[in-house]
Structures are given as C-alpha cells and as structure tokens.
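The protein record passed on below.

***
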Amino acid sequence: MELLDELFFGVHEAAWPLIRHDLGLSYAGVGLLLTIPDAVGAAVELAYGPISDAGGRRRLLLAGGLAFAAALLLAAAAGGFGMFLVALLLFSPASGAFVGLSQTALIDLEPKRHEQAMARWTLAGSVGVAAGPLLLAATVALGGGWRMLFAALGLATLPLVLVVRKLPLPRPVETAGVRAELRRTVAALRRREVLRWLALLEVGDLVGDVFTGFAALYFVDVAGTSPATAALAVALLTGTSLAGDTLLVLLLARGMRGLAYLRWSAVALLFVVPAFLVSPGLAKLGPLALLGLLRAGWYAILKARLFSALPGQSGAAFSLSSLSGLLGSVPPLLIGLLAQRFGLGAALWLVLLAPLALLAALPRERS
C-alpha cells in the first residue's frame, strides 16, 4: 500500500510541469493544489484514530481504498483546476484511511521496534517515489502522458482493496469505545513530548515532500531545463533518497541511534541546501543527490518517536499527526506565494528552516 501510494506521489510530483501546462495553472494555483487538499484531508483524518483504536480499522481501510481508486480516476479525467482540485480533495483523506492506517497496523505488529518498522515502511515508499519519475519519463518518451499513469494506478488499487478484506490486522487489547479513545487522543495532545515530535515532523517535511513537490518546477523555471530533464532530476533526488533509506535500515539493524543520525544529517544539510540553491544549471545535480541521501530517514525516525511516545495508541498518533498536518499544509502555499512574488529560486531558501529546527529541538539522548 505504501509502495502504491508513493509511486503515485513520484509520478504526480514529477508531472507538475505537464499538469501545469495541460490545466493552465499559475504558481499560486499549484500552491493551492498542494495545500487545500492536505488541509482538508488532515481535518477529516482526525476522526480516523479514535475509530481505529476502538476496532474500526478494517472498515476505514476498505472505504479508503475504494475512494483512493476513484480519486485517481477522477484526476486522470480532469479538464481544469476545479475538477483536479476535487480529485485531490477526495484523494487526501482516502490516502489517510487506506495507507495511513496500514502504517498503524504495522506499528502495532512490532511494538518494541518502531524505528526499524518505520525504516522498512519508508524504504518501501522510497522504491515507489524513485520509480514514479522514471515511469513518467518512459511514458512520455513513448508518447503517453500523466493522465494514463493516474488511471492505471487507480485501477491497480482495486486488487489491494480485495486483499484488505482477508488481511490479518492487530486488534486493540482494550478499548472503551470511540468516545473514550477520542478523550485519550485529546489528552495526549497536552503532553510536551508528543508536541515536540509533531512539530519536528512538520518542519522536517520541508526537505521531504515539500521540496520534492517544487523540484521539477524549480529545474524547469530556475535551472532552465526541459520537463523531461526535470523529471530525471526528481528521479535522481528520489533515487538517492532510496539509497539513504536502504542504508538507514542497515544502520538501525546494527545499533545506530536514530537521534544521532538525525543530528549529523541536519548539520550536513546546512551546507548542502545552500550549495544546491546557488549552483548554476545542471551543476545543481550534485548537491541535489546529496540532499536526497541526507534527508533519508527523517520521516521514519521522527514518526517512530511519535508512535513510541504514545504506546498502545497508534491510531491517536495518526490522528494527531493529521492535526499537525493542518499547520504543515501552510509551507507549500507560502512557498508558492513567495515564488509568485520573488521567484521560486528565492522562495526555496525556506527549506533551510528544517535542519535548523531539528538541531534546536532534538532532545539529548542518554548513553
């Protein structure tokens, strides 16, 4: 499920120059499409956690899978901004139910190995993200387009929905119902440790999905490349992220501490991000590859720490991360608006906030 979701993400992000041309979008329009669906999805997903922790996870997974497929088919048929926005408004909460709750099931299966479980989950997603731009580039070279891929991925979702009906899912050990789980979720939001990991997840995403979302447009509009070259640049970014996620799985298996990994990678990114932004033309590819390698593991470790801060409440962790996602939906819109006013090259300097925030807020881990 994570592989399919991130395969769509990889295709979608690399296809932004083509989508913008076909639908006649502005930078502000792209920013709205990157912001509004995520905000609406995050609001809807607040209800998923209590329902899941109270035993309703399978029903949400099945409904989410069907909506996931319908959203991709609708996006493939979109003729303008409005219809494409509607498709993404359906897709965002559908992905939360279908993919996000699958993640909570994996976490519940390995309650003592959250970082390792999340590292493997992220690695599966990285395979999809890396394959997406390559698939798009090959499809365009053969005369196809993004619409064909969106429709194909929508149809590919339906067999997974059938699998969910028979998939063994961990059941809650003890629950007093949806209302009681909702009260536990709200109570968790008052804990400082939970708030720390929620905030770092959203800030860290500046070098993750937010950066990837603008990467193809950046190469076309700032570096002056063709859309096909931009898709290959995104493939390089996601490919090195895949290599980094693979390395992280091996490092964690050999006892490396997740927080130590985050610290040294954040320090390195303080130098790599400016090098990428100031390099001319295709010389940006070297720093881009390093950025992909160094950002790997950020989401996996930070999300694992959130799950560990809420033992037995994987659904609550999911809902609270959706709540923080409401704030996390602001940076893409802000970057889009700044790009409209000052240019995308200037707007992407905001990405530096991610390593700075991690170095300032990560706790010191005892030996």
Notes: The chain has a mean pLDDT of 86. Residues 48-76 form the longest helix (29 residues).
